[in-house]
Amino acid sequence: METIAHYYIPAVYDVIRRYVEYTYGKEKSAIYHHGCGESFVGNFTPQYNLGGYMGSGRFFYCPFCGEELSIYDDNVSTYFAKKDQLVPTDMDVSVKEGADFIDLIFVSNTVAVDKTNVFTDRAAVRQKIRFDFKSRKAIFMRSNSTRKWEAISEIFPAGKTFHLLTALKDNALDSVGFLGAFLNGSSRASKHRDGLRNVLTALRNAFKRKLEKTVCYKVRDVFAPPTACNEKGYFEQPLRAMIWKLLAPDASRLTQLTLYRLSTMNDNLLPADVFERTKKGTSFVDAVMNEFNLTGRVWRRALTKDPSMAYFAKRIGFTDKPSLIMRLLDKISDVFVLGRSITPLVDLEECTMLTKAMVKQYGDNRTVEFIERRFDGDQALADVFLMFRGLSRFNKQNAIRNLPRRMRDIHDALLVWQQRDRGGDLPIQVHKRFVAKMGEYRFISPDNTNQLIDAGKRMHICVGSYGRSCSDGDKAVVLVANNNGEPVACLEIAKQGGRWKKVVQAKLAYNKVVASNDAMNAVVMDWIRSRKLIPATRDIDIEATVV
Length: 547
Hints:
Blueprint: E1 2-9, E2 15-23, E3 26-33, E4 38-44, E5 47-49, E6 52-54, E7 59-61, E8 68-70, E9 78-80, E10 87-88, E11 91-97, E12 101-113, E13 119-132, E14 137-143, E15 149-154, H1 160-163, H2 193-215, H3 236-247, H4 256-263, H5 272-279, H6 284-292, H7 297-305, H8 309-316, H9 322-336, E16 337-338, E17 341-342, H10 348-362, H11 364-373, H12 378-390, H13 393-401, H14 410-422, E18 436-438, E19 441-444, H15 449-459, H16 467-471, E20 476-481, E21 487-496, E22 499-507, H17 518-530, E23 534-535
Parallel strand pairs: 2-9, 22-23
Antiparallel strand pairs: 1-11, 2-3, 3-4, 5-6, 7-8, 10-12, 11-12, 12-13, 13-14, 14-15, 16-17, 18-19, 19-20, 20-21, 21-22
Helix pairs in contact: 5-6, 6-7, 9-11, 9-12, 10-11, 12-14, 13-14
Organism: Veillonella magna
InterPro entries: PcfJ
Protein name: PcfJ domain-containing protein
């Protein structure tokens, strides 16, 4: 076995930090400073800011070497470790080539917080991805305690198995996660672009050469551009492209949208039989058409562009109507594409289940036209599927069996089932920072899920379905009420950098956007500025209120 590329990164992060506990007005954190290789416990007093408490310790001095550090300094890479997680301090990346395989190998020394709440050195972790050209498989492997390599899982370009390569901690990968995922946008990977690029170039060239030798024809679209700013790791996109080509050498490029459609499902979206056929020489499109019993030039063109269409056509029952399934998927995909980023708002599995029921109740053309035209904005469509996804299995079936006679009543019908499924009232943390009186309007931070349900009924929106997320601390909702106590607007706040910072939804009654009412738009923007929040949604017209 020959080493064809090698690169060593001496420091993956400058600072590794883990929250330990909060006692007597002090926030205690374990801190590892790579510059001097020492670890210590820092006690920081939370600071009051804009109606709430926030963690301090943004700037501190290492007690061992005296260097001034800042966890928010762009020049200081910081990793916030999870409980019991091993974090790499350095990274050795190499590519080795054998007779019928190529290995991408990662080796790191790691640290973790011990019982005394400081980071201590742990044993080196060794992992690799093997591209096996004889069996046409990509395999994730790790070294056990005897330093022998053991196979953990075959990897597909999307779905659950590839998630292992983007998760920093997963039960299947023990307490460290995939080492390559640590070379992300918050690490020092950006300072090692040239070295990592050389490793990737050697890997890609060797991969392409071996794959073409295996299949006996030229293979296109093997390259996918990497980026050191990718939060899932520098190698994420290139690895997806190569694994995809290993399984389906003649398939078209794996686009971001197709990749997302595939990733929302499990690894069986394209059954293993498809890839067994391609290994025996069948073209990828023919293999998919044979597996799903599809015929015709229209389907062939559609699958060349997006192979995930076959799965959804079968689930919904549109196998003989490629044009309808394409129209439907294009609209449903708008739910996931917000701006230019792909966001996992809704599992497509739920979309197909509900859409299939609508087709049975209302007919295929009416259903597609309704989804295309009748929903007022992409978020309204997402809300329908979000409510359906949140139902128990029992009430999902009830909702499907009892769809309303008029399609336009689906939103309210699902809201009723959501309320029946909800159970008892749940508490919600009050965010005092958001509470305010702006002219004749009051901004309220609800303290229980009943308030969200009541606001949803009065405004005919589905904010009631956000109860569990708000109770769990995953979402924050602010209600805007008039002098009579009637809710007139509803705002959703999301976290950025661990703090509630971004306004991501701003709705009036019937899901109309706040921007459609100039007076309310101005009030909401005044509140956003007074709370130093970021308007990160098209529901608000920022320009209309800029002074």
